[in-house]
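Can anyone check this?
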Amino acid sequence: MTTLTRPDLRLHESWAAALLEFGSEQVHGAGSWEVPDEIRSSTSREACAALISALARRGDPDEPRPEGRVPSDYFWITDRDEVVGFLAIRHDLTAFLRQSGGHVGYSVRPSRRRQGHAGRALALGLDHAAVRLGLPRVLVTCDRDNEASRRVIESSGGVLEDVRERTMRFWIDLADRGDRADRGDRGAAVTPSVGSAPARP
């Protein structure tokens, strides 16, 4: 069961293991840049607690934030009690995000890739963007040579607008997801704290 879970200190050990598994690879959607360097470089329980507190504040539109930052909702992608990845949904776009970052950032730890978690987590994130944030469409990007990410985005309804340098830019229309939520259909409802999607048989 792929789930979007709000960052929770109860999952500290699994969070730390997931980050260490990425090694030097950039961890999209984890929100590590939201804390000072000394916290960012640590996987201690104290660092995890500080990160969780910072990420919770970043989702509040009224919370002061550095110039160039937008409100963002952060989730840990989980399978039962294991953190298998990270996902962030930005409420708005700056000029930089419109160029290359998009509304959604996500990553799955190397040992849990090719298991469908990315696609299911993105689907839940899109539901959250439609139902909780009221966004009519979102921009999702990936590197031009990231074939796996491209397939995930396209299977989620992404339509390629253009390629800017190394970045492929896709728009995903969320109108249908909002309509399904109004009807109470499965897959469109994401609670403020958690959403889940079963693995395909």
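Reply from J.R.: I decoded it. Strands lie at 2-5, 72-79, 82-90, 104-108, 137-143, 159-164, 167-173, 194-197.
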